[in-house]
Amino acid sequence: MFADLPLKLIVFTALAFVLGCIISAISSRASGGKRVAANSPQDHRIRSLEADQRVAQTESEKAKEAREKLEDELKQTTVSMEKRDTVIAHQQQQIDKYKRDLKVSVRKTRELRSELSDRASENIKSEVKLRDVKTELEVAQVSADMIATGVLDYSTASEFVDDETDSDVESTDDSIIGKSIKDF
Predict the structure, then answer these.
(1) How crowded is the C-beta side of 3, counted as CA atoms within 13 Å?
(2) pLDDT tens per residue, range 113-141
(3) Among candidates 176, 146, 180, which has minimal Cα distance to 161?
(4) pTM (2 d.p.)
(5) SS3 track for the chain
(6) Rounded CA separation 171/177 (Å)
């Protein structure tokens, strides 16, 4: 196909191509000088600021994510603190209730101790009286038994009492009863 075209057309095309390359090289060199001029310190500053802005935006996004995480943690901590405060308040109420109950129990215990000590002393007193009564009944029973058996003769005791003074009568009666009990 290339061989079918006239030679003039091929030469013109090759010349146009080379001429385009030369013109493009000349224009790029001419504009290259302007590019160097366009790469002035202001352009570097602008590019630097744009790069800094991109870095700042990424850091800002990271900071926002970190802030959101911290806010979530703060919310969770606040909720857990409120729960803990609720539990502490409930436990403090229970402690106060137990203290009141303990005071009442201590008071009742003291009253019961007092009542028990009073009852114990009354029981001891009644036991002592009961023993005294039992002893008197036993003495009376022994005396009655002695009289019934004839061991104790009041006729001899009355002669003995007549000889003695009135003050010795009580001691004589006691000694006679005591003697009779020993003999029994």
Answers:
(1) 0
(2) 999 999 999 999 999 999 999 999 999 88
(3) 176
(4) 0.39
(5) CHHHCCHHHHHHHHHHHHHHHHHHHHHHHHHHHHHHHHCCHHHHHHHHHHHHHHHHHHHHHHHHHHHHHHHHHHHHHHHHHHHHHHHHHHHHHHHHHHHHHHHHHHHHHHHHHHHHHHHHHHHHHHHHHHHHHHHHHHHHHHHHHHHHHCCCCHHHHHHHHHHCCHHHHHHHHHHHHHHHHHHC
(6) 10
